[in-house]
TrEMBL record:
Pfam families according to UniProt: MaoC_dehydratas
InterPro entries, alphabetized: HotDog_dom_sf, MaoC-like_dom, NodN-like
Residue intervals of the MaoC-like domain: 15-116
Name used for this protein in its record: MaoC family dehydratase
Lineage of producing organism: Bacteria, Bacillati, Actinomycetota, Actinomycetes, Micrococcales
Record-stated family: Belongs to the enoyl-CoA hydratase/isomerase family.
Length: 150
């Protein structure tokens, strides 16, 4: 469910737990498209037969593919009305905790850690987790930095 707030009300949102998105299956097609976009065609990602004999027992998503899903999940969890521009400003403390096997389902969770006023807007520091269905450890933990301008 998306939490939607008006720009005038964002200053006090630090500490807000936004919950979790719906599950998303990581398909081989998605992995192959990411490989094409980044020119990273390492066999552990794009050769399922060879990857089955590799260290992960099957093809896995690129770490940066898993990380890129934080943007998708963030936009599903949170929106601000009354803004002119939204910017992904950066990341802090990114960790790829567990590989995501092709065919696994992942979802995103987010907690707004800090809200800081900046010239013309606000910056959000958001603690984000990409969780793998049925796994004991997450795929990715990161602090995303997002800016909203009036």
């Amino acid at each position: 469910m998306t939490t939607t707030v008006d720009y005038a009300d964002v200053a006090g949102l630090a500490g807000t737990d936004l919950g979790w998105t719906e599950w998303l299956e990581v398909t081989q097609e998605r992995v192959n498209l990411f490989a094409d976009a980044t020119d990273d065609h390492q066999w552990i990602h794009v050769d399922p037969e060879r990857a089955a004999e590799g260290p992960f027992g099957g093809a896995i998503a690129h770490g940066f593919l898993s990380l890129s899903l934080t943007v998708k999940f963030w936009s599903e969890l949170f929106d601000v009305t009354g803004v002119t521009t939204r910017v992904n400003y950066g990341l802090d403390k990114v960790r790829f905790v567990s590989p995501v096997k092709v065919g696994a389902r992942v979802r995103g969770g987010a907690v707004i850690a800090e809200v800081t006023e900046i010239p013309g807007g606000y910056q959000f520091a958001v603690d984000q987790t990409i969780e793998i269905e049925g796994a004991g450890k997450p795929a990715v933990v990161a602090r995303g930095l997002y800016r909203f301008y009036a």
